[in-house]
Amino acid sequence: MQLLEKKNNILISFVGTRDDIKLLKKDGPILTVLNHRKFDKVILLWTSSIKNNYDQISLNLIDEIKKRKLSEIIERNYIDIENVVDHNEIYPKLLNFLKAKFNPTEDKITAAIASGTPSMQACWILIAESNDFTLELIRSNERETGLKPITSVKLGTGLPRIIKLEEDIKKLQKINKALLPKIVVHLSRPRIIIGNVEIFLPPILFCYYRYFLERVKNNEEPLRAKVFEMDREFIEKIVKYYEESFNEYDVNLAKYKSMLKANKKLSVSSFGGNRTKLNNKLKQYIKDENILYFITVSSHGKRGSIYYEVLIPPENILIKK
DNA sequence: CCTATGTGTTGACCAACGTC
DNA sequence: GACGTTGGTCAACACATAGG
Known about the structure:
Radius of gyration: 27 Å
Order of helices and strands: EHHEHEHEHEEHEEEHEHHHHEEE
Strand order of the largest sheet: 3-2-1-4-5-6
Helix content: 40-55%
Number of domains: 2
Structural class: alpha/beta
Shape: elongated
Number of strands: 13
Oligomer: single chain
Distance between the termini: 71 Å
Strand content: 15-25%
Largest sheet: 6 strands, mixed
């Protein structure tokens, strides 16, 4: 006999200060949700805090829920979060908890995200948006806001980082990552070898390319170009790289050095021009579009906050003296 | 829709260098 | 030195898009 199973409808929420029914004597976010929606089970997450006693607040809340018969099964779970504003700590702990506790085929999880620190809220959204764990998100609005008591939180609205990751994954699926070439940068007798092709780059372009490859190697963030001019840090690096590889050509070097001395900045149009020229050079040698996607200096982000980077994994880059 | 402006590409222009 | 080649900057133009 096949059982037509009904999923367990479970509400999960952090307990926040606004859920302190004893102190505030009015319904906080969690009670507001339960006043309007029925769940088979309610799970309250609490964390330790110096300022607030969430242990007690959650116990009081359970009493209140039972008294009003808003849900029959109520559980409390302690989550050991040291720093309640640190996404990096909250995200994995919350995710591990969800994965250990629930079974997505049997349980339908709804998270109420109005309670908890902003970082906790952000982690709920990230977990749901990335689909690391399938969740429905709702936000309760207390009566005085005049809003609907419960609104669902829209996903798929395009967190930029996630969209970019999706793009990368799509590209990666097309191309076996193991087939990505190695990029070897020789600093003395400067030359760049991608796969087995030697790429000839003029000095400045060589330095530009090294600049972006070093950033990848050092796990640095992508470069953000300011609207009208390049950072001093950028010019300093280019000067350093120029000196290391092109002692004999000092004309450009002198220009850059005087730029630094006069505290002038490089115009972005120069940067942009050189980036295009660098990428065009690479296109001359490498024809595979999927490979080019990973080895050229690509730009991402929205207008006004564009950033530039090379997407090849750090282990594919070798920088030799 | 239009406008303003950020971003990307191209080539004019200049300096340096090599060759004859 | 004339001439061609190359590398570099920058501005003009082309294109994209946010915001009125």
